[in-house]
Every structure is written in C-alpha cells, then in structure tokens.
Amino acid sequence: MSEWVEATVVERIRWNDALISLRFEAELAPFNAGQFIRAGMDIAGERIGRPYSMVNAPDERPHEIYFNVVREGPLSPRLAQLQPGERFWVVPAPTGFLTLDEIPDARHLWLLATGTAIGPFLSILKTAAPWSRFEKVVLGHSVRTRDELSYQETIQEIQQRHPVQFQYVPFVTREPGDGPLGQRIPASIESGALERETGLALTPALAHVMLCGNAGMLQDTLASLEKRGLKRHRRREPGHVSMEKYH
C-alpha cells in the first residue's frame, strides 16, 4: 500500500460546537479494535496529519473517527468542515497497542476514558472479545459538560445486548446534577465512589484497567490505582493497568 490513500466522507456528525465524528470509506488494512489511524489534509502546500482512534469495530463499515476541534489547530477545524462526498487522506495501516490481545485475563475489565478517548473503547465493546473473556465490563467516560456525553445510542445498544455484564458510568465534572459522578476519574477511585457505583472492587486479584485520555488523567489515575496495589502492565512485566495517551 502507498503511504496515504484517499478517504471519502459518508456522514458528518456534529455532537456540539467542538465534537465531530466523521464516517468515511477508505481502503484500509485489517486492524484490531482499539487501534488508531493517521488522518490528514493538504494545507498550504503541506500534508498535515494527526492520529485518530477508530470508533468502528474492525468488521463494521463505514469507518469512523471522533475528535475534538482545536480552534487554533491547523487540521481539526478543516476536518470538521468536511461534508459527505468530500475527501481527506489516511494512512491505510492502523496501529497502536491499546487492544485486548495485549492484556492478560482478569475477571473484570475497566475501560476508563476522558472526552474523545472513548472512541477506541467503543470499537472494543462492539466486538465479541470482551464478552467472552470477562465476567464484568465497565465503561467510564469523564467529560466536563453533559452535552459531551456522546454516543449514547451506541452505549444503550451495548447495554441491551449485554445487560448482565456491562455497566456504563458517566462522569460530568463541571456541571452539577443528579446521576453522573461529579468527580474526576482518579478522585472517584480515591474516594471509593466508582466502586460503590458499580458494586465491583478495583483490586489486583479481579481487575484489569485500560486507560485512554490526556497525560494528566493517565498520570493521576495510575497513581490512584497504584495505591490499591495495581501496577502498570508491560509485555515483559505483566500488570493490571494498560494505558495510552490520547492526542
């Protein structure tokens, strides 16, 4: 395959002023749920590319990416303006290690994300693998405001397919109200609120945690988990926490 191939927009979803999903068709290599792709556009004579996780499952079409519009950024504002039928560029081979085949077995799988970093976890949850490997699967999604709790229909469909195994925990940190937890993910671990909400224990004997988000979230959440005896997972040194910084 060439370094870049054309992608054609099929659908543009505008969740709010800053959150956009693009569904597109492109000739991509097979990929594993949880991996990301590089998308780009030609801007001022230069091809600018950034990594974006795949939201669709590997066998699902069209392909889909979900991203935050960085107002001062060179690429995302232009990607956000694309309409069905318009084109952009993608590198055809997805990559990344935030996949289930990279983690050890456990009884409970925790998928904890901030903002648009929920994308790779939705891809994973659409596959058969988590439901055959884990007794319980928790998806935690932390956002600032309620209008950032995107993909609710998809999450409801997952809940309906796996009512016993699946739990969804939204966190809304900058708006008061009943329902979603009002703490950041690391604070909810420190206080025990996340365990109380789910009825599940975050312990090395039971849990494997996958984290996807900004650097601060990863650092703080890992520190909170380490206080409970969980340690970072590496190929050479198996542990309980897998993580990927989300750009």
Automatic annotation (TrEMBL):
Keyword NADP attributed: yes
Catalyzed chemical reaction(s): 2 reduced [2Fe-2S]-[ferredoxin] + NADP(+) + H(+) = 2 oxidized [2Fe-2S]-[ferredoxin] + NADPH
Record CDD domains: FNR1
Essential cofactor(s): FAD
GO molecular function: ferredoxin-NADP+ reductase activity
Superkingdom of this protein's organism: Bacteria
Domain named FAD-binding FR-type: residues: 2-101
SUPFAM superfamilies the UniProt entry points to: Ferredoxin reductase-like, C-terminal NADP-linked domain, Riboflavin synthase domain-like
Name of the top EC class for this enzyme: oxidoreductase
Pfam families hit by this protein: FAD_binding_6, NAD_binding_1
EC number: 1.18.1.2
Alphabetized UniProt keyword annotations: FAD, Flavoprotein, NADP, Nucleotide-binding, Oxidoreductase
Annotated family: Belongs to the ferredoxin--NADP reductase type 1 family.
Family matches, as PANTHER family: FLAVODOXIN_FERREDOXIN--NADP REDUCTASE, OXIDOREDUCTASE FAD/NAD(P)-BINDING DOMAIN PROTEIN
Protein name listed in UniProt: ferredoxin--NADP(+) reductase
Source organism: Thiobacillus sedimenti
Lineage of source species: Bacteria, Pseudomonadati, Pseudomonadota, Betaproteobacteria, Nitrosomonadales
